[in-house]
Structure formats: C-alpha cells, structure tokens
C-alpha cells in the first residue's frame, strides 16, 4: 500500500463570485489591505468609509474562518498573502437601458466582479507596490484632533445687509 503524504497547508482562501460591484472600486480596497496582517486589515476595513469595503471585509472573515476550521491555523498570526479582483462574466457587466431624450436609450453597464483572498501564516516576501489613486486609510489621530474643535464650535450666521428701504426706515 502506498503511504499518503500529508503536507501542511500554508494558505487558506475564500472566493466571492458575481459581486455586483465594479472591479475598479473593489481593487481600490484590495490594494489598501494587500500584504497586511489580518487584524490590521479588518480594522482598516471596518472604519473605511468606502462602500466596497463591506464585501471584502466579509470575504476576509470567511478566509480566516477557513484557515481556522479547515486547515487548523492560528488566527492570531495570519497575513493576507493574495488578493485578486477580476471582472465578472460576459465582458464583466450586464446591460440595462437608461431612457434618454427624444425616445432614445442608452446602455448602463452594471459591472460584476470575482474576488479571491488568501491568508497564510507567513508574511509576503516582498511588500506590495504603492499604486496611484485614492486610498481608504483612516484619518490619523492628529487629523481627528484638529477636526474635533472645529466641529464642536457653533457656526455663526453672517450679518445680513440692510436694504435701502430698511436703512431709510432706521434713520426716521
């Protein structure tokens, strides 16, 4: 009888298929968490004010659960090793009609995405490249402190200009 070799898995993954969101929006969030520890990425996703952060947060929690339950990895020291965002089927979108003037119609392209997240116990060998574009990082403590007093102070109404009639009535 041949003995089976059981190699220990170093990576656990989770897939999100047919997400009704554009890949461009999801890639913005994926680039922000790529290569980070799971704990740091979950914190970043939770407080990011970006609509695309919620499905990626759920997918990351699923990948961590897969690592713990299926591959017996410790969840405390997991890192995000891979994040892949691909466009969905058929050119990546479904078409919807948008009525236009004079009986015309225009197509709206409702894009779909496939997302794969892999987590592992070893950090990635090389740091991911910084990509240009908008970031989803939470504001720093200094920025929050600077914004707090400005928000707490009540706003004054600007003084109204008197009209000529009101100015003439005030002189009498």
What is shown here, in short?
The protein is of the alpha+beta class and 172 residues long. It has 5 helices and 5 strands.
What does this structure look like?
It contains 5 helices and 5 strands; from the N terminus they run E-H-H-H-E-E-E-E-H-H. The protein has 172 residues and is of the alpha+beta class. The protein has a domain at 10-123: Ribosomal Protein L22, Chain A. The chain is flat. 23% of the residues are buried. The model has no long low-confidence stretch (mean pLDDT 82).
Task: Provide the fold topology.
Elements: E1 11-19, H1 23-33, H2 38-47, H3 53-69, E2 79-87, E3 93-99, E4 105-111, E5 113-120, H4 141-152, H5 164-171
Antiparallel strand pairs: 1-5, 2-5, 3-4
């Amino acid at each position: 009888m041949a003995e089976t070799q059981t190699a220990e898995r170093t990576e656990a993954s989770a897939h999100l298929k047919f997400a009704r969101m554009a890949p461009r929006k999801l890639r913005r969030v994926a680039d922000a968490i790529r290569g980070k520890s799971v704990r740091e990425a979950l914190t970043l996703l939770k407080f990011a004010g970006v609509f695309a952060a919620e499905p990626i947060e759920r997918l990351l929690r699923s990948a961590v659960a897969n690592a713990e339950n299926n591959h017996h990895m410790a969840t405390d020291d997991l890192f995000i090793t891979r994040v892949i965002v691909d466009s969905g089927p058929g050119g990546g979108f479904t078409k919807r009609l948008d009525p236009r003037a004079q009986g015309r119609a225009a197509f709206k392209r409702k894009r779909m995405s496939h997302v794969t997240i892999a987590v592992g116990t070893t950090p990635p060998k090389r740091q991911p490249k910084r990509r240009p574009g908008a970031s989803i990082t939470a504001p720093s403590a200094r920025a929050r402190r600077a914004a707090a007093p400005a928000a707490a102070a009540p706003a004054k109404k600007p003084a109204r200009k008197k009209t000529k009639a009101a100015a003439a009535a005030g002189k009498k």
